[in-house]
């Protein structure tokens, strides 16, 4: 799973996810892409599950680019812990995804194969996605 090697601060505020994606909204590397239509936090487990679905369907053919990285620490307090006592420990890492963001790109496979692979990957993600081609 993906996670940052090093961070300046261990915990982060939740923040707001307003607006659409300005950067990372175009195809940069591959011929086909999977674009986000909603906004959400996508955990590193979900990214990995989607990546596995794509590589399994394409039978490891072509080249795959992951355009998002989970660099936001998400904290979780233990079950049965009373209110107060500070912020919880880091549970997992998530990527902040806003509408228009390119999540995956692929090249070296047919359009039908890429479309089906991205459809399968989209089911693993907590957001609505769309297929994009050049």
Topology:
Elements: E1 32-36, E2 40-43, H1 44-57, E3 63-66, E4 72-76, E5 89-97, E6 102-107, H2 111-122, E7 129-133
Antiparallel strand pairs: 1-6, 1-7, 2-5, 3-6, 4-5
Helix pairs in contact: 1-2
Description:
With 134 residues, the chain is α+β, with helices and mostly antiparallel strands. A 4-stranded antiparallel sheet has the order 3-6-1-7, covered by helices on one side. Strands 2-5-4 form a 3-stranded antiparallel sheet. Helix 1 (44-57) runs antiparallel to helix 2. The protein has 2 helices and 7 strands; from the N terminus they run E-E-H-E-E-E-E-H-E. The relative contact order is 0.32. The chain has a domain at 32-74 and 89-133: Ribosomal protein L16/L10 (Aldehyde Oxidoreductase, domain 3). The chain starts with 31 loop residues before the first strand and ends with a strand. It has helices at residues 44-57, 111-122, and strands at residues 32-36, 40-43, 63-66, 72-76, 89-97, 102-107, 129-133. The mean pLDDT is 96.
Q: How many alpha or pi helices? A: 2
- The CATH class of the domain at 32-74 and 89-133, by name, is Alpha Beta
The biggest sheet, with number of strands, parallel, antiparallel or mixed sense and barrel status, is: 4 strands, antiparallel
CATH architecture term of the domain at 32-74 and 89-133:
Alpha-Beta Complex
Radius of gyration, taken over Cα atoms and rounded to an integer in Å: 16 Å
How far apart the termini lie comes to: 29 Å
Order of H and E elements? EEHEEEEHE
Can you list the strand order of the major beta sheet? 3-6-1-7
Unreliable segments (pLDDT under 50, ≥5 consecutive)? none
Beta fraction of the residues?
Answer: 25-35%
Determine the mean pLDDT.
96
What is the fold-level CATH name, i.e. the topology of the domain at 32-74 and 89-133? Aldehyde Oxidoreductase, domain 3
Strand element count = 7
């Amino acid at each position: 799973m993906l996670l940052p090697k090093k961070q300046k601060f261990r915990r982060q505020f939740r923040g707001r996810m307003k607006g659409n994606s300005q950067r990372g909204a175009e195809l940069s590397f591959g011929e086909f892409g999977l674009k986000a239509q909603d906004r959400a936090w996508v955990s590193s487990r979900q990214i990995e599950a989607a990546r596995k679905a794509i590589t399994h369907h394409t039978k490891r053919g072509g080249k795959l680019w992951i355009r998002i990285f989970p660099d936001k620490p998400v904290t979780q307090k233990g079950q049965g812990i009373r209110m107060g006592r500070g912020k919880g420990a880091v549970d997992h890492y998530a990527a902040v995804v806003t509408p228009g963001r390119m999540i995956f790109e692929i090249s070296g496979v047919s359009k039908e194969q890429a479309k089906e692979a991205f459809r399968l990957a989209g089911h693993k993600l907590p957001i609505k996605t769309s297929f994009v081609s050049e």
